[in-house]
Amino acid sequence: MRNFDLTPLYRASVGFDRMADVMDRALSADIASYPPYNIEKTGENAYRIAIAVAGFGADDLNVEVKDGAVIVSGRKAAEDEGRSFLHRGIATRAFERRFTLADHVRVEGASHVDGMLNIDLVREIPESLKPRRIEIAKSLKSVEKLDA
């Protein structure tokens, strides 16, 4: 696997440190496969993270927004006393998943239904960043009114 050195990006730009940090984390992150998840686009500015959390109840899960990331963790209390498994295929080991959020994306809510943890996200672009139409003056009188 290749290693990318992002140092030139840090020293040759101003204000891109957050983007460089995200790229650095993405390139150096260990790829964990537990628990499996989907990220889907549910609308023009809406997204959903769906995580398969079979065996976990809502009380065993924690969803937290911190430092521009959604952190999902699960910890199952030991309940195996008196139970004997011939095969144990449903993993209930502790986990932590981190999803970095883009600017202006916020968590709208979370739900736990049928072994799936759904986290709904929405991108809210501030009015100051939305495109706006500027009216063009058509006569000299209109320009004078704007200057007044």
TrEMBL record:
Domain SHSP, chain residue ranges per copy: 28-139
CDD domains according to UniProt: ACD_IbpA-B_like (cd06470)
Coiled-coil regions listed in the entry: none
Keywords linked to the UniProt accession: Stress response
Keyword rRNA-binding tagged: no
InterPro entries for this protein: A-crystallin/Hsp20_dom, ACD_IbpA/B, HSP20-like_chaperone
Protein family according to the UniProt entry: Belongs to the small heat shock protein (HSP20) family.
Protein name: Hsp20 family protein
